[in-house]
Amino acid sequence: SPRAVRRYVLCEVLSDDPRCRQCIEDRAVGLAVRDAIGRVHGDYGLACCSISFTVKYLNAYTGTVLLRCRKDSYRLLCSALPFVRCLESRAQRYPCALNTLHVGGTIRTCQKFLIQYNRRQLLMLLQNCTNEEERQCIQKSLLSCSLTEEQSQSGDEEDDDGTE
Is Nucleus found in the keyword set (predicted)? Predict the structure, then answer.
């Protein structure tokens, strides 16, 4: 099965520049990652990582990015991610960093990790609430996390689309 030879790397884009969010798009992230791989591992590393490499999912609002690569090159990919320094869009460069959250064999394992991760982040926010309105808002978000998890366990969706 081609699925067994893939790895999915879940990252978050961190930036102090609020304008960075608007350039979190497949192409910009893909180019920034490829550039970092080339700088760190040269042409050979870039060639190894480019086979099957793709930005599988991204959410500009949360800064969440899911990268797919071949299993035998995921260490090369992961070791280059700390060297992503900016995203480029419309001739503008926005400083940022990619923080690796999880590496999984399927999209589903990454989704499950992300649900737990988001829940932990929300619980930390809940502890730092300053008023009741904030508290209720975060509690509502926490409930939506668990609903998402129950839906993902229905088994309807595939882990991957099977394309190379």
Answer: yes
